[in-house]
């Protein structure tokens, strides 16, 4: 009799538990009030400190709830009409070459054109700088405005950006055990490893994981993914600040300021908020590094792990581990190291003859010129140009920037003559380190952490849409060399 009634009892218990969790999650999700909206964006003024109760909803989440049903129907219709259409062919070289250029991923936030460069939701870097809300007296887009654009495809108003700033600040409190975890890391552990470790630990409080195991509807996955994503974006700032201050300073981390924007709070926890130029640089840096299509290692890894319905915390930790590689996010650190060694060798002699001799010596020894070339781009990276414009305005006489500027003229000529580089022009990594060290952030091993913070915006924006569209687990087909030989013979 007991055995016969047990399944019924378990189902009833599960249903009751699900209702309690759903009620709890609902109260957690209703976080912030919608501020008064205006028809057009206005310069972002310093917000008045406000206390947000759990009785109000997030403007960004409200907008997503309006957009998702329409987008679902659009994708459903598109697949029904064109699901069997062929988009391209795969060559043997692409299989052995890391799937380079194979059209196989959906990524909504950005598209990279070989000649034009990156477009964020169809806006160029320059258009983002012109259209996205900036801080008072600032010129650079706020990272909050870039995230809103990546998620919705729309340019936010200043009030919407202000609300998002406040929401992230309110979500930024770290669990005590995560703080202790970071504090107990040895100072020999790379900052990226510490970052990944801390993000993984946030899984303990994952709303998505709890909701999934309670049996919530698949149609609602996006809502819980959204909650984790917003928490992650908010908490990665104090995590990064704690890592930086422990490794390189006195271990004291400034608190998050509830009335300040995301870029300011990042500068503040690092200890650089007293320099408004540096704060503006971080706003620019976080915005232009936020997304770069879905095929790069960090973006693809986050999407891949998320496709298994791992939480945003586990997905982003995996993404960060990919970003930490020297062929990906670690490149900006290597570029600055290259530039410093070059400066030590050539001194103040930036003549064509001296620079070309140094470069040819590198190439003749089988090495590369870091910061030049790109897997997709075939022209100068627009993100490089955005940073160059910033340097021309704020540090035109800096010796390291002058070296970067001269290399911008000399390296493409040398690489073109060398003939082994498809794109001889500079990418984003060739400039960012010089800017950071100018303002005193000289710890090169930390640079990839900043890259990781910015990349979180793009990876989380896409992961929300992955769950909203119900994308399945990713599972491409692989072959052994022997099978490939047989298929080629048959062909």
Automatic annotation (TrEMBL):
Q: Does the keyword S-adenosyl-L-methionine apply?
A: no
UniProt GO cellular component terms:
mitochondrial matrix
Which keywords does UniProt give here? Transferase
Task: Name the InterPro entries for this protein.
Answer: Citrate_synth-like_lrg_a-sub (IPR016142), Citrate_synth-like_sm_a-sub (IPR016143), Citrate_synthase (IPR002020), Citrate_synthase_AS (IPR019810), Citrate_synthase_euk (IPR010109), Citrate_synthase_sf (IPR036969)
Biological process, per Gene Ontology:
carbohydrate metabolic process; citrate metabolic process; tricarboxylic acid cycle
The catalytic residues are 328, 374, 429
User: The organism sits in which domain of life?
Assistant: Eukaryota
Name it. Answer: Citrate synthase
Record gene name: cit1
